[in-house]
Amino acid sequence: MSLKSERRGIHVDQSELLCKKGCGYYGNPGWQGFCSKCWREEYQKARQKQIQEDWELAERLQREEEEAYASTQHPQGAQSAQSLTFSKFEEKKTNEKSRKVTTVKKFFGASSRAGSKKVLAGKLREVQEAKAASPISRQVSIETDRVSKDFCEFLKTYHKPGQEIYKQCKLFLEAMHHKRDLSIEEQSEYTQDFYQNVADKLHARWKVSPEKVEMAMDQIEKYIMTRLYKYVFCPETTEDEKKDLAVQKRIRALHWVTSQMLCVPVDEEIPEVSDVVVKAITDIIEMDSKRVPRDKLACITSCSKHIFTAIRTTKNEPASADDFLPTLIYIVLKGNPPRLQSNIQYITRFCNPSRLMTGEDGYYFTNLCCAVAFIEKLDAQSLNLSEEDFDRYMSGQASPKKQEPENWSADMCVGVRQMYRNLDLLSQLNERQERIVSEAKKLERDLIDWTDGVAKEVQEIVEKYPLEIKPPNPALAAIDSENVENDKLPPPLQPQVYAG
Amino acid sequence: MGNGQEMAQRTTGNKEVSFLQDAPGSKEFSCVFKVVLLGSSSVGKTSLAYRYVKKDFQDSLPTVGCSFFNQCVTLDATTVKLEIWDTAGQEKYHSVCHLYYRGANAALLVYDITRKESFEKAKVWLSELEKEFLQNEIVIILVGNKLDLSEEREVTIEEAKEFAKTNCILYTETSAKSDYQVTELFVTLAHELLELEQQKEKLRHTTHWKKSRVDLQETASRRMKCCQK
């Protein structure tokens, strides 16, 4: 009974989990209930608009400035100077449209006539600051504050070293702020060095016990990464976003892969198993909403544990890696976790290395990397399919998933049932459509054949009975002259004159 | 129900930690080594690790997963922690498996003595490992499993020994089913790892490089040893 109610609860959860836009993929509270793709679209739109507005404002200010400048200085030369800067302006605009608003500042900073631009830059900075206080970043800062407070509380238990750690972290964050323009690899290296240094110091100088060092390292990671997250997660200088989209597209294209094809030892017909599978999918999707690498790892580990439960429930024996990896691949394919590559890259770059290379979390993370690598390379052979079938499924011409109505299990979701019914209807319509098209083609062919046939017949007749127009007979006038039997004829009657 | 399971996991997790703390000499020299199990599917990789861990932990079997193991080995006053990573052996996952042995300290190349092709596969694994690691960077042991089925043997001891010798790796035969030489295998592994680590430690002290782990001037000196009688 309790199981059933729990199950119902999960179903509600699942529908809530879906993207608000209704694209069928899972949404995420971090993205206001959208899936990664829809959120990106929404967010991009808003951002583009913002950027556009900023540019328009900047342009207006620039124009005003230029006009003021021109009227006071060179009434003649200003026109050309203005057009020159504007062409540069336009070029930059197209180049960096997708970039951050800060580029506006940069551009003006680099402008030739710095004196008159100072006021302008100040105005722009105000604009930026106003923008920075958008609801999203405010939410972030609340969380950051909470983490900072927790961190301070935690460090109090470390007494003297605690203060030192805090100082080190502050210094590190300061340094990272100045390194923001560096490549992400350099930033990552710097962070890793920092972890190493602090751990060494804790161990060697302050003689903190290994367990406490580990705890402190976890807290330090949490503190600094919560602060750095928005600058170093999926940075614009890398290809991460592109890769995310590629993986997402790939997984979408592979929607037809069944657990049988991957040889997944999980039977989703068993209600408990399907529950656990849903939990595993939820966990792996939740990973994206975490900001600290270690929390992300915890999501992966939790997902893996659920997978092991699912396998054990199905097979009634402990699972091995031979079972685990295919199941994880299946879960990733089913869940299509948002920003998968970005998350993997982020964890690799900024997680405390001792967590990543060893330990249970590291093991499951490695498995996830394997799963993603496998999905990227997946081909017909790895699913035991023929090339033709694989290509057909990939192009969406056929779907191996279609089920017969009598095979539907009783507890199947109503929506899914409806979907199958619709799919069925669609395929029927498709069939009829195809028949109509083929009939139409046939009719067309018949018509062509008929006209051709008629033409041919006419041609034949024409050939058979050629129309010969004989030249007019020149001797027609003397038609009688050729009369061979002329002499047999009695002599022509001679006119006789009767005297009268 | 889900909560109960989580609780169970947590308690076993704690047990492991407490074991680590209580182990004698753990503070003296406590090393964690990553060991990957490589080999074709169903050669007994999991069984091997399972058998080894199970014997020492009669009642605290891994509650859920059986592909990641933590095991502490105490060798005269030193405790070594082995982290055993099981890998998927199916052919189709071969292309992604290099991710598993990143940062590994040891690799067990497991093959089935009754299946020739699994031995051939082990050779492939070895060549992959050689691409990734320098010779004295990793401990590699060739393990012929399923000795209990020696009547159906397809890979002779001589053949395997010869191969191990030419490639400078250790070699043993085990049976996870009848628990033959499994513990010995892991103890030998721990010994080897410790020795390698001490060598590296010495290097680190003599040369003043702190980060570099491999001295290119050092001649590759690896002692040959065989667990097989």
Order of helices and strands of chain B: HEHEEEHEHEH
Euclidean distance between termini CA atoms of chain B: 50 Å
Q: Classify the helix fraction of chain B into a percent range.
A: 25-40%
By DSSP (H or I, 4+ residues per run), the number of helices of chain A equals: 18
Low-confidence stretches of chain A: 1-10, 75-120, 129-135
**Major sheet: arrangement of strands of chain B:** 2-3-1-4-5-6
- Beta strand count of chain A: 0
Number of helices of chain B: 5
Question: What is the quaternary state of this protein?
Answer: heterodimer
Q: DSSP strand (E) fraction of chain A? A: under 5%
Shape type of chain A: elongated
Rounded Rg of chain B: 18 Å
**Roughly what is the average pLDDT of chain A, rounded to an integer?**
78
> Mind summarizing the main beta sheet of chain B?
6 strands, mixed
Distance between the termini of chain A: 151 Å
Instruction: Please count the beta strands of chain B (DSSP E, at least 2 residues each).
Output: 6
Keywords (chain A): Metal-binding, Zinc, Zinc-finger
Domain VPS9 (chain A): 241-384
Domain A20-type (chain A): 13-47
Biased composition (Polar residues) (chain A): 70-86
